Structure formats: structure tokens, C-alpha cells
Amino acid sequence: MLDQPAEGYVTADGRQIGPVVLELKNITLRFGGVEAIKNISFDIREGEIRAIIGPNGAGKSSMMNVISGFYVPQEGEILYKGYKRRKMPPYQVARTGIARTFQNIALFEGMSVLDNIMTGRMNLMKSGFLKQALWWGPASREEDEHREKVEKVIDFLEIQHIRKTPVARLPYGLKKRVELARALAAEPQILLLDEPMAGMNVEEKEDMSRFILDVNDEFGTTIVLIEHDMGVVMDLSDRVVVMDYGKKIGDGTPDEVRNNQDVIDAYLGVAHE
Amino acid sequence: MTTTAPEAALHSVPALLARNARQYARLTAYREKEFGIWQAWTWAEVADEVRAMALGFLALGMERGDHVAIIGRNRPALYWSMVAAQSVGAIPVPLYQDAVTEEMAYVLDHCGARFAICGDQEQVDKVIEVQESVSGIEQILYLDRRGMRKYDHGQMNWLIDVQAEGRAAEARLGVELTRRLAEQDYDTTCVMLYTSGTTGKPKGVVLSNRNIIETAKASCSFDSLGHKDEILAYLPMAWVGDFIFSMGQAYWGGFCVNCPENATTMMSDLREIGPTYFFAPPRVFETMLTQVMIRMEDASPAKKRMFDRYMAHARKVGGAILDGKPVSGGDRLKYRMGEMLVYGPLKNTLGLSNIRVAYTAGEAIGPEIFDFYRSLGINLKQLYGQTEASVFITQQPDGEVRSDTVGVPSPGVEVRIGETGEVFYRSPGTFVEYYKNPESTASTKDAEGWVATGDAGFFEEGTGHLRIIDRAKDVGKMADGRLFAPKYVENKLKFYPNILEAVVFGSGRDRCTAFINIDLTAVGNWAERNNIGYSSYQELAGHPRVLAQIQEHVEAVNASVAQDAMLSGCQIHRFLVLHKELDADDGEMTRTRKVKRRFIEEKFADLIAALYSDAKTVYTETEVTYEDGRKGALKATLELRDAAVVAPAGQRMAAE
Predict the structure, then answer these.
(1) Across the interface, do B262 and A148 touch by the CB < 8 Å criterion?
(2) Among all residues of chain A, which has the CA nearest to that of B628?
């Protein structure tokens, strides 16, 4: 793997990549006797697009859940912005600036697109339950401010036409986009995308790729991405982690990973002893 | 119309803006929905924005007579950029934003644009691609900053930055701007618009201030449009209609132009704004009606009964009430009930509650569709026009509205029918010339200012209304000398909701044949209702039951065509349903969605040959262009169907 300067660098296409923002050290995650993640270490730099790939069951989504705080690893530590992250529930992790989307869409089906995206700002709302319920004074003003932010996200992802449509009525590709919108509404520093292109046709994939690049470019959001479409991964990401059976078998730029014999074996299938 | 300034001084769009900024200072001039809210600008604010932009253009070195290409969807700032360009003596050239790169390259090269003002990154990318082959473009300006950060800004500017620089340069360049503004008069060029070009390359139509302002003046007074009116600007800015409605008339009358949030929200924006003055091509009215009908199919039986009952009543008396004809008291009362229960809520849903005047033009509109809107109390009228006339040639006065005519000559327009049946006109709106194309100018406009429309038509006896038959050059003769008017038959076919497009062939042949395009929305809905599964457009278009339906329509049209002795030869003997939708991206249609007949004849020559053979099916491969410009091939085996024709009643009599 190429050694990049610690303080950051500028990519060929002019994007600013900063220092390491999140570091995973010797993470091991077990479910009873099953070791889903075996002693994995890697880091994520500020402003980069970092992909995690691997065959089915490799432990990618578990890794995502470790980063988002949903799973707590039995061994290893997570350094976030230079400090060791203590055990905390996912909503507190979200408050530290990490937002995610889900492999299986997890939206509120009966609510409108707008309301769904508004829930993304939950963590940023300050007025208490009572004030919100009465919707009085500061609470109403606060909602206006949040609505403004949400509208910018709606504009950014070009979903104005479905603003008031209940999510249940939307096609799959748009639901995915709404999920991304909800995650973006939280104004995250790190955005975790769990298979954002799954089940999409070529055109939808192109749109989604453009949005991911735009988010990264426009807001400087660091993006961690799990994806099966190799074309997408190789085109979008700055660095790729490859997992197989819970182990890390590769880490580096798309080109390095593509030529890594272990990775080729894992994908083409070599008998495991 | 009241004007405080002497009208003689109002000889340019910037001058009209200055007047509006004084006279209607606090009235809303523009609205645009952005971030979910309608943002508004008053005339005074608009004047300020335009001035800043004009100063910014001066700072960038825009010269008199420069052509400024404007490419983007309808947005206030892009309209302002046109006025700003006019202010410094440059000529705005709005382009179709959905044009592919080659089309854009031709136009940018032809007009020699030095400046290109783009709506967003997509348009900037196209212009940059064009720059590889066309050298004239020196500066690219853009409005939406998204995705633009990484571009080389050496010769590129954000429009808002240009305005800021303009404001800062007020002291330095203000005098020069005042001088340039004073140079504008009735004979300077107001705008250059490219015709969509059903044949050959697009032509740049030069329209002077006189053309635009005289036309706006006459047409505003014809329908008494004034500063209280509201319109929705959603049709392409490159189209002459939008320029007249959203610029000419809006600046003359001082009314408010509303820009939708984006193309997909047009219908809900229409509902929110509720314009008083509305223009839409027949296709939009058709789509709206189709949607209403589809939704009524899903309504509860009680609602559906109520809808059917009152719509039947509206069809009976609605049109007459709108025209101010005598209608019995009982019928009026029932109509008012209907207004409360059905028509009012329906108009509200469609966003047409406040309409005072609505126009349709460009294509023939189906009589059922036309009557549907009129029976609801919407004053939908037809006009006939073209780019070269600054739109208006004829239009329908209130009280004399029918679906089969295009009205009487507009105020100030003279119309005559040539010996060949072609329509000629002369008016203050008649264009100056085709840019860099004296031959075409000479062949279209004669020394006395008469312009050939290229359409064949006649004045109706008694009413003085003009009726258009077809494009003059499309009207031909069949092998046995009978008259061939394809458009006439195609329009009849297109009035069926499940036929989107039809192309009839037969010039120089012994019988007529046709290509049919199904309407995916209508046919898809029908398929769903009848449990017909399909996986693609192609499969649905080839379904035997769809073909049977289309055959019924073709035969019904044949029966109707046979009624007219003159045109009975145009009955369709054989037809096929195309496996792909005709598309402007494949060059089969113009950007304004008019069929390019010659092109289709060449492209689908194999299919036409099959239609004139005895074959039952035909195999074909067609090249298609995807949205991103890549090309692919579409393979299909199409069924050729024979349609029953009716022996013309008139001909038998003539033979006796």
C-alpha cells in the first residue's frame, strides 16, 4: 500500500484528503462461538471514500455495525478523532457525527418523504418533548431551521417532486435515495452506506454514484461504503478494504486491491482448507 | 393598460423593465419555488438584479452585437440574464436545454456565441464538450454552483459573482451602461431564436424589439392581460412562445412569471400558483385529462356516478355558458351545482381554478379534449403562430371558440391564402431575417413583407376563421392523383388516448399505411386493469390485444376519413405498431415533439417496404440512443395488420 503523509494529501482529481479520523485496531467480534470479525485493523481518513468489499458472509455489515456502535466488539479499540471511543449506544455514536443507511431499507413507510428526512435531524433538535408537542415559540422556530436544512438536502438529491409522497408509494431506487437523504440531514462527518446500489438498475446506479461523489465533494463528508458492484467500488473509492471469512485479506487503492492474489482467490473461489 | 411614461420611449425590453420598476415597483414580478418555498422578487428588485448583471457583463467585456447563449430550465435569473444582455447591446440566444451536444454545437457555432450562460453543471459540461470543436465561446457563466467547484475557472464564472462584481463596478461602468441602454431602439435585435427544424438544420430567427413589443402590446390588449395576471413559465426558454409569454407580454403587461421548482414538480407547482393565463401544447392537456380519467376509474362508485352525471351535463351546457349563449335557468342551476360538487374541485386539483385565458397551439387538439376543458368553464382557446411571426398569426376571440379552427387574424396581422392554398401573413411581428442565411430569408419573406407559413389552409365561409389542413409540403398526391394529407389522418388517430403518435405514408403510392406509437401510460393502465402482464414497452406494443384495439381505432378513423370525399384516399390499408417510442434523441422528432417525416422514412425504410409487401411480419433492428448518449440496438419482429377500409360515399356518386 502506498504510504500517504499523515497530515493528508490532495488526490489526482483535486479532492483534499485529511488525516486519519477513525481508526479500528485489532477488532474481534464474536457471536457466541462464531467469530464474525477476526482481528481486523484499518483506518479511515477525513474526506476519503473508503470501500469495504468481500464475498457474502465476509463480515462487512458486521464491520459497519461496529463502526456505528450497534455491535460492541469483544476485543480491540476504536479511535475516533484521536481519542479512544468508549462504549456507547448507537444514538450517541450518531451524535458524534456518524450517520448510516441500511442494506434493507429502514424508512417509516407510512410517513411522507419530508417527515422521514426530518427524523434525520432528531439528534440535533434541542427543544424538549413538551415544547415540541405544544409547538410553541422556540420549538416552532427551531423546526423552521431544521426544515430549511432538510430542504437543502431535498434539493441536493433532487427529490422535490416526492416531498409529500408517503414512502410506501415510492419505487425502490427512490427509497434508497430518501434513506441517503435522511442520513445526510444529520449533517454527518462520516457517512456509512451499506450497499447503496443493491437492486438498482444501471441508470439508478449512475445517479447514486453521482450523489455519493457530490456529497463527498460538496460537504467534504467522509464516506464508508459497502458494495458488491465492483465497477462502482473501483470507480468511486480512494481506498478499499477486502474482507473474507471475517479476516482482512487486502487493503489499498483500487489498483492494488485488484492485483492482490488473495483478493482474486477470494472472489474467483479457491478451495479453503 | 395605463402607462405613465410616453409609450414612444418603450422601445426595448430593458426600457419596459425600467417602467415596471417605477410603475409596479412593489408588485411581484417573479416567483420561483426553491427549497420548498416560493421565493418572490418585485419589479424594483428585478431591475436591481438585472442592472447588477448587466454591469457584470460589461466588466467581462461583453460587446454590442455579441451573441449570448442561454441554456437551462426556466429560472428567474436566466430570464434576467437575457434582459441584462439586451441592456449592454448583446443578443440573447436561448437554447433547448435537452439538446444533445451535436445540436448545441451547430447552433453555438452558427451564432458565434462569445458567452454561454448555463443553468447547471450538466449544461456547462455540454458547452465544454462543444468547445472542442467550436472556438468562439470565451466565457461560461453558470447559475447553480453544485458540482462546479473543481472546474477551471479561468474563463468561467458563477453568475452571482458576476453580479457582485457588477455592483462593485457601478461607479466605473454605470455611465457606459446608461449609454448602451440609450442605444436600444425599435430596430435593434431583441432576441434570436432557433427554429426546431422539422427539415434540415435549425435556422436562427432574428426578432427585433419592434417585433416583440408590438406583438406583446397587441396580444395583451386582445385578451386584456395586465399586471394582475399570473403565468407559469415551464415551456422551453428557447421556444418563441415562452419568450413572448414570459418576456414580451410579461414585461409589457407587468404580470408575474412563476418558475417551477423543477420539471417533475410542474403539476403541483401549477396547483399552488393557480395561474390566470396559461399556455400548454395539446399534449399537456391530453396528459392531464388522461390522469383525471385514470383516477376516476379508481374512485368509489358513488363518486364516479356523480362525476359522470355532472360531466354529461357540463358537456351539454358548459361550453354554451362560457360563450354567453342562452341557456335555460334549470340547466344553469344544475351547472352551478356541478361547479360546487365536481367542476370546482376538479379545476382546483388541476391548478386551473383561476384561469381567465388559456391557449393551446402547435398541434391539433382532439375535439373531446378541447370540449372537456371548455365545458368545465375553462376559457381554452386556440391560436396559430410560428417563430417567424413572433407567435401570433391568428387566434380565437372569446365567444367564437371551436376545436377545428385556429381563429381570426390577430390584431395587426394580415393573412392571405396563396394560389396553392398556402397561408401567408404580414404583421409588425414579422421577423427581420434568418441569421446568416439570406437565401432562406428571401424564399420565406418577399419584398412586401409577406411570409410563407408552409402550412396549407383556408378561410371558412361565413365565420372568417382560418382552418389549417397540413404542412403544405406534406400535402401530396397519391399515385392515382388523389389528395394525400397525412397530418389530417394522424391527428384523428392521435385523438385516441392510447395512441401517442402516428405517422402516415402514402405520397406517390397507391394506398396509405401507418406507423403507430402506443401511449404507455394509457395502454399500461389498461393492461394492468385487464391483468395483462408485460415486461417492456416492446412487449406491450406487440401484444395481440393491444394490436386488436389499435386496429379498431384505425378502422374507425378510416370510416371517418371516408366521409370527406376529398381526403377519402387517405384511409389506412395497413399499419404496424412501432417497437420503440419516437424520440428527439434519436432524431425522429424535433425538440418540440413534431415528427420528422423524412428522417423516419429513411430510418425505417425496411418497415415501410414491408408495409407495402404481402409479408405478415417483419424483423428489424433499430439503433437507439440512451440518455447518456450511448447507442444500442433494439431488435424486434413486428406484426403487420390489414385494416378494413370504407368505400367512399362521395366517389361513387362522382362516378355516376
Answers:
(1) no
(2) A203
Q: How would DSSP label each residue in B13-70? A: HHHHHHHHHHHTTTSEEEEEEETTEEEEEEHHHHHHHHHHHHHHHHHTT--TT-EEEE
Instruction: Report the predicted TM-score, pTM, of the whole model to 2 decimal places.
Output: 0.82
CA distances from B7 to B15, B51, B243 (A): 10, 22, 21
Please answer yes or no on whether A14 and B150 come within 8 Å at the CB atom: yes
> What band does A270 get if pLDDT is binned at 50, 70 and 90?
low
Of A14, A160, A217, the CB nearest to B261: A160
Give the pLDDT confidence of B216-237 residue by residue, as tens digits: 999 999 999 999 999 999 999 9
Domains within chain A, CATH numbers bracketed: 1-97+188-273 (3.40.50.300), 110-185 (no CATH)
> What percent of chain B is modeled with pLDDT above 70?
96
- Asked whether residue B1 is domain-assigned, the answer is no
* Shared-domain flag, residues B18 and B51: yes
B29 vs B102, higher pLDDT: B29
For residues B266 and B357, membership in a common domain is answered with no
Q: Cβ of B35 and A14 within 8 Å?
A: no
Retrieve residue B93's grid coordinates: 440566444
Q: How many domains does chain B divide into?
A: 3
Which of B452, B471, B490 is the last residue before a domain boundary? B471
**CB nearest to A217's CB, from B147, B264, B628:** B147
Interface check for B121 against chain A (CB to CB < 8 A): the answer is no
Kind plus residue range of the DSSP H or E element containing B606: helix B605-611
Specify if B2 maps to a domain.
Answer: no
ipTM field: 0.77
Nearest CA in chain B to A218: B147
Pseudo-torsion of CA B173, B179, B184, B190, nearest 10°? -10
